[in-house]
Amino acid sequence: MALSSPGTGTGTGTSSGAATDLPAPAPAGPPRRGLLPLLLVGNSAMYALYIGVAGVLLALQVEDVDPANKVANFGLIAGISAIFATVFNPVAGALSDRSGRRNPWILGGGLAAVPAMFLLGLADTILLITIAWCLGQAVMNVYQAAITSVVPDRVPMGARGKASAAVGLGLPFGSTLGALIGAAFSEDYRTGYLVLGALVAGAAVLFTACGREERLPARAPLPVRSQLAAFASALRDHDFRWAFIGRALLVLGYFAVSGYQLYILQDHTVLPGGMKPEAAVAVLMPLTSVAMVVSTVLGGYLSDRFDRRKLFVGASALLSAVALVIPAVSTSWPAMLAFAAVNGLAFGCYMAVDTALVTMVLPNAEDAARDMGVLNVANAGPQIVAPFVASVVVSVSGGYTALFVVAAVLAVAGALAVKPIRGVR
Question: Which Pfam families does UniProt cross-reference here (predicted)?
Fold first, then answer.
């Protein structure tokens, strides 16, 4: 899974594309009718697959294959597959920039999710599971890179907060749906995989059928060396670099914990009598999602209203740290419920406002998807490190308490990283 930001660069820097490229004009007027609901549906389906697979079904499948080494194996699979997310997201974004189209990439990636999930269900060894989920990450990041770039392509600056909220709501809605599907098919993960793949495919068909797009001017491809230099050039921008660092730190802490949610419920939390960990996930996710919905809507609205992105981003990151301390000091079920609620409030606000902030600091509007792909390395890159960090911390400490503490420290560091940003209040 690679968390994405719905907005991209809005600056007027020099194109990193061909010499004859001109900056893409900013969208004018209100967004096309129906676009925001389509963004909500498209992103909800994407997160449903990510959460349903990585959060429930994949963990159960890994445990079935090798119960004794589930933590190490799951960390290995998550880390290797995240490499594919890191690579395919910016590459697919750059290719969609060059083609001048988003819809074909959304449709192609969405439809390819079905065979990818079918192959994942057939895998019966750790090696085959790893290969299949890497394929799944690849096709889903083609889909994600294209749908992420729809906001800067089609939404004017004045409506970016609302668009960010619509995209951000995809996380709580999709997380709840994915957790429920995962719990419902915990005894038959093969069918669960197919249901999630079909959900993404259906959303892709709906989005491309109903979300009309105007073809952007295509640009000539660059030599490989120039493309690599273009990817790196964004990191030389001061504000972009600090936004990148802040996002990377928070995401690292978030995924170090969330990736092991099922195992935390199995081995750390004292569940009520008769409750299975899969059922506990299906309880926690809706609770987190309700909190996310509230804070996402309020965060997006208030950030537009007061034009204070940094304040909201920093405060929500600090609140995330507070949430992570709760299960560190208590292994009770009520503590996990409190963690789910507070973490939902924190993360929903963070994603809504930080994505609005991102639209204002990426340097090149004409390379929207490419620059968003670079920023999304801050989402996918930490996911490579997080499983290994988590498995080492759990193995060395002998439990999950230290993992929560480490994640809280990373959240605090992520909050501090937004302070140096100069171009956004």
Answer: MFS_1
Quote the percentage of the chain above a pLDDT of 70.
Answer: 85
- Name the residue among 134, 73, 77, 71 with its Cα closest to residue 390: 71
Give the pLDDT score at 369.
58
> Is residue 4, in this structure, part of any structural domain at all?
no
Whether 92 maps to a domain, the answer reads yes
Please check the confidence at residue 287 and state whether its pLDDT lies above 50: yes
What's the token pair of residue 79?
């880390």
Count of domains for the chain: 1
pLDDT at res. 169:
80
* Mean pLDDT within 30-56: 87
Element (H, E) at 3: none
Contact 407, 232 (CB under 8 A): no
Structural domain includes residue 424: no
Contacts of 37 (CB under 8 A, 6+ apart): 166
Task: Measure the CA–CA gap between 24 and 97, rounded to whole angstroms.
Answer: 11
419: Cα within 13 Å, side-chain hemisphere:
8
Nearest to 347 by CA among 41, 28, 9, 51: 51
Average pLDDT, stretch 360-365? 71
What is the C-alpha separation between 233 and 246, in angstroms, rounded? 18
Helices then strands (H, E): number in the chain? 17, 0
Residue 19 burial (CB count, 10 A): 7
Task: Write the secondary structure of 156-211 as one string of H (helix), E (strand) and C (coil).
Answer: CHHHHHHHHHHHHCHHHHHHHHHHHHHHHCCCCHHHHHHHHHHHHHHHHHHHHHHC
Length of the chain: 425
Instruction: Look up residue 56 and give its DSSP letter.
Output: I
Distances (CA, A) of 92 to 50, 140, 141: 18, 10, 8
Greater confidence (164 vs 195) lies with: 195
Q: Report how far apart the first and last C-alpha atoms of the chain are (Å, whole number).
A: 30
Query: Please, which pLDDT band fits residue 99 given cuts at 50, 70 and 90?
Result: confident
User: What is the extent of the structural domain holding 150?
Assistant: 35-215+234-417
- Give yes or no for a contact between 40 and 383, defined as CB atoms under 8 angstroms apart: no
Would 10 be classed as within a structural domain? no
Q: What is the CATH number of the domain that holds 104?
A: 1.20.1250.20
Mean pLDDT score across all residues of the chain: 83
